[in-house]
Structure to design on (277 residues):
C-alpha cells in the first residue's frame, strides 16, 4: 500500500491500493476505518491489513456501482461488515451487476447496512463531503476532503495520461451516463480548490490535481464541438474566467485565436471577458 504523507502532511492516514487489470484503485482513509471503493483485486484484504486490522473498517464509500469498483466487497464481507455509503441512483443500478451481486446488495440493504448519500452531504467521521457528479453514470459521487484539498474522483475524472482513460470514464448509458451531465459535473468540479486528485484508475496526481479537471473538460468540449475547432477553447476560456482565473482564460483565448485567426467569435468572447487573445 502506498501512502502520501511525505508529499503533504495533510495526507497522513491515506493509503492507496493501486488498480491492476479490470479493477479500480482502492483508497484507505482514517487509518483503516474508511474505504473509497472496493476495487476487484485478488488479495485486497491483505493489502488493507498492511494499514490496520480489518475489524477497524467501518465505512465503504462507493463512487458508483460499476463492477470494477465493488467486486472487492465480496472478500471484505467474508470477514467483516462495514456500512456502505452510496448515491441512491447508483444503488439502483447495482441491480444490473452480475449475480450474486444484486442479491448481495439486497442482503446489505435488509441488514440496514446501505446508506443513501445526497449531494453536499458530509460523511460523518471522515472529513469528506459527497458531491454528486453524474455523467459517467447517473449516480456517480466524488468525495472531497476540504482540509487536504483532495478530490477522490472515481471515474468522473481520470488522469489524462492514463491509457484508456477516455474509455474508462465515458458515459455508460445503461447506468444513465450522459455527456451533457458530465460537462456540468466537470464545470462544477473546476470551481473547487483541488490540489490532489485521487482517481478511480491510474496514479494519484499530487499538487497539480486541478489541471486534470481542466484537461478532462476541454477534451470533452473538443469531443462535443469538433467544429469550429476554436469553440472548445472559447468555452474553456469562459469557464476559467468564471472561476477567477483570467490568466489561464487568456491562454485558452490564445489557443482559439491560433486555430481561427479571423474568427469573430474569438474577438467577441475576448471582448466579453475583457481579455486579449
Ligand atoms: Fe472504473
Ligand atoms: Fe465506472
Amino acid at each position: 500500500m502506498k501512502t502520501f504523507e511525505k508529499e503533504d502532511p495533510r495526507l497522513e492516514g491515506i493509503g492507496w491500493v493501486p488498480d491492476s487489470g479490470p479493477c479500480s484503485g482502492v483508497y484507505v482513509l482514517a487509518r483503516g476505518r474508511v474505504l473509497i471503493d472496493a476495487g476487484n483485486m485478488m488479495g485486497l484484504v491483505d493489502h488493507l491489513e498492511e494499514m490496520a486490522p480489518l475489524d477497524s473498517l467501518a465505512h465503504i464509500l462507493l463512487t458508483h456501482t460499476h463492477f470494477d469498483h465493488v467486486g472487492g466487497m465480496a472478500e471484505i464481507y467474508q470477514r467483516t461488515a462495514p456500512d456502505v455509503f452510496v448515491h441512491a441512483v447508483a444503488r439502483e443500478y447495482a441491480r444490473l451487476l452480475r449475480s450474486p451481486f444484486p442479491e448481495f446488495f439486497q442482503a446489505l440493504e435488509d441488514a440496514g447496512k446501505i446508506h443513501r448519500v445526497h449531494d453536499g452531504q458530509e460523511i460523518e467521521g471522515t472529513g469528506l463531503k459527497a458531491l454528486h457528479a453524474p455523467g459517467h453514470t447517473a449516480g456517480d459521487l466524488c468525495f472531497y476532503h476540504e482540509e487536504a484539498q483532495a478530490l477522490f474522483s472515481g471515474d468522473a475524472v481520470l488522469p489524462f495520461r492514463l491509457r484508456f482513460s477516455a474509455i474508462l470514464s465515458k458515459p455508460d448509458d445503461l447506468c444513465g451516463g450522459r455527456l451533457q451531465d458530465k460537462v456540468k459535473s466537470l464545470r462544477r468540479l473546476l470551481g473547487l480548490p483541488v490540489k490532489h486528485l485521487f482517481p478511480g484508475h491510474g496514479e494519484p496526481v499530487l499538487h497539480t490535481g486541478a489541471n486534470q479537471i481542466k484537461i478532462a473538460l476541454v477534451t470533452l468540449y473538443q469531443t462535443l464541438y469538433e467544429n469550429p475547432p476554436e469553440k472548445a477553447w472559447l468555452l474553456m476560456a469562459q469557464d476559467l474566467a468564471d472561476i477567477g482565473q483570467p490568466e489561464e482564460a487568456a491562454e485558452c483565448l490564445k489557443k482559439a485565436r491560433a486555430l481561427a485567426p479571423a474568427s469573430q467569435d474569438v474577438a467577441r468572447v475576448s471582448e466579453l471577458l475583457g481579455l486579449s487573445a
Q: What stands out?
A: The chain has a mean pLDDT of 95. Residues 24, 66, 68-69, 155, 168, 200-201 surround fe (ii) ion (ligand 1) (CB under 6 Å). Residues 209-224 form the longest helix (16 residues).
